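Standup notes
- HV: blocked on the assembly model, inputs below
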Amino acid sequence: MIATVEYAGLFSTVQHFGRYGELSGGVPAGGVMDDRSAAILNMLVGNEQRQPLVEMFQSGVRLQFTQTSLIALGGAQMEATLDGQICPVWRPFVVEKGSRLDCGRCSHGAWGYAAIAGGVRCPEREMTFGEPSALIAGDILVGGSNHSRLTNVIIRKLTRSKANSDRSYVSSENTPNWRLAHQLLPFSPDSPPGRVRSIRMIPGQHFMQLTRDFRRLLTEDALRVSTAVSRMGYRLETELTLSSEFPPLHHSQPVVPGAIQLPPDGQPIVLMPGCQTIGGYPLIGFVASVDLGKFAQVRSGQHIRFETIAVEEAQRLYAESAKEITQLKVGISCWATS
Amino acid sequence: MIATDWSWHPLGDSALQFTLQANPELPEQAVIATVSQLREAIAEQPFVGYLDAVAAFGSLAVYFDLQTVGSQTALQPSEYITRHVLRLVKSLPFHYNRIDREIEIPICFDFALDLEECSAHLGVSPKRWKTRFCELEFMVGAIGFAPGFPYMLGLPESMQMPRLPTPRLRLPAGSVAIGGPYCGVYPQVSPGGWRVVGRTPLRLFEQQDVNSPCLLAVGDRVRFYPVTPYRFERMEREGT
């Protein structure tokens, strides 16, 4: 047992990275909304890239730790505290047994993450199929697997520096002496929260059948994320009401996370990792996998614009992003063993 | 089967969609069966990086892990996967074979909510409507909306009903309903806008059955047979 959930926040789950094998039975794959942030946080605590972790929507969990653990927080910008003191984000730190971690509110972005060394499970909320259900107060988090060797090295390194310090534990002395490069993070500290985000998309089969006005609308700053957002999909709003010119599809077709559907009311829906497996609306495009997590972090009321790219370019960008995360792992091992 | 019958296009950067068009020589039922056979062939002989595949009517989506595929081949991912899939297409039987799976589903019409409207629409008595319904042979064209929910084709046009203007908020599990060209069964308690014509005691999606949670698969042929409320309750209790 690692910790007890004292307060569960708005919608928190122990989230995996997508489960495949039953899509043909209509069971969604699910998985983290911001996969890049989640993978980076796993690296920071010495985990495998795709170990389950705690995902939080807008407001974070409060955990009472019953076991000393190595953790890292990130994703959305959170105002997290450990026993009342502000704790670091995007850096690994040790939480001691008996400590209380309050992840606070997400002030910038929508989805916050807490990665715990060894991975984490919530046996009460686990599901055999489909999406895991939301955590509730009183749930118990248990360890997923044994610590990796890297985790143990990181813990030794961080607790050694603690012994040298008289100051309270969460101080600059006890967190690593490095920061992640801004370009690795979904938000750089100096980017204003209201900035219009550019999201790369691959045009779909029906894209060229859209009117020129509608295509322009998608690539300018006129799209806003509505309040209808969930793990299944984000509804977008446009200032203009353009009705869709497509007849509905003859039959439903398979869909994927990132697919941009155009229902008859002309307000696009972007499908997210918890989406259904088939859908009946025309698909005008697909958010590139490399940008889906970034898009997930856009909050209701904020504006976005789409930038069209070729599918090969989207695949190349994803490979580059994967390489950065691998390099990060190497970097962390070097620091830990130096 | 020959490869030229198929077209394909990317479904984003991590999936490819293969499509087989219906034509006079290849009716819709044959298309559905063939697409379903290809799905099984890929699941049995996957390429490295394969995640899953979904068949829906004439389309097959093949999902892959971009990172694994990228480390596996120097080819573009689409090229690598298309080659593999088209090789499997060639191994499919040239002539369409009906698949053997035939499933009989008990239905108790006493739980119908919209039987009056349906029979009035067809201009027959409810009794006659039920007989007609049990004579039909359906084919599962897709599974979706909810885990285990089948979209079954085979409803003659005269029996097709428009969906309800406002969906009902809560239908019991097992509700058998028709909407547009489809017949479906709600495996779980769910909201629904289709016309409910009865209920089945059969469980279409078994959460606990890790190996095959879903009773039906795309391509299955389905018939309904009537059961009394007494038999319905007994079957439901026995879980058969």
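- HV (later): unblocked. The interface with chain A takes residues 9-15, 17, 39, 51-61, 63, 66-67, 70, 76-78, 141-149, 151, 205, 207-208, 210, 213-214, 217-218 of chain B (CB under 8 Å). Helices of chain B lie at 28-44, 66-72, 77-91, 115-122, 126-135, 229-238.
- Next: hand off to the docking folks.
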